[in-house]
Design goal:
globular, 73% helix, mainly alpha, 244 residues
Length: 244
Amino acid sequence: MPHQLWFTAILNKLFGGVVTWVLLALGLHPEYPQAPIPNFVAMQVLIALFLLAVFLGLRSRLSVENPSSLQHVFEGLRGFVQNQSREIIGHHSEGFTPFLLCLGLFILAGNLMGMIPSLESPTETPNVPLGLAVTAFLYYHWQGIRRLGPLKYVKTFMGPVLLLAPLMMPIELISHCARILSLTVRLWANMFAGELVGLVFFSMIPIGIPVIFMGLHIFVSFLQAYIFVLLTTVYLQGAVSEEH
């Protein structure tokens, strides 16, 4: 049996049998049929439940005349993301704000979760940054197809001159696929390295010094969430722009 966090154990006890049955029906054979839900999946479920509870609680207490501190925080975050996307994408960027904000909050919560005792950061596992990168990849391509149309969007990969299409098309495809690798490695490597360095110094000097690395880990968590959202915004701009 693999090491299970307390929340992972709860999920496996409640839904492990169903998950194993679904995986077997799909032709997949879990390594541990008694515990098919790994820690990083359980942590993502916990983050989703936490954010949902926060949003529902915030929605029930929305006020124009007397907004709460939490409302101010989220309004500030929304305004920041919306202003940034407007500067990069243009005046039609408001529709992308919910996705970008949710993406950033999920990554930030995932980065910081490892600082809570008995929990761990799912972004330290490469599967999670890869899933986030693929999600961003599919989202901006879908938005490009919706805005420009399938044919016109495909033409953006062919270059300004049709004769260059055989050369430009492979280059563009490789470049876009490399974005998945770039987003994945950047987020995973920074979070994994930060956690590893913190554990090393905590084992060597358990008093005082780890606090410095905890502060550094918080800073890196915010920075990596911001960079991921910023790059996704840039990719969106390239996909929906009609000035290719």
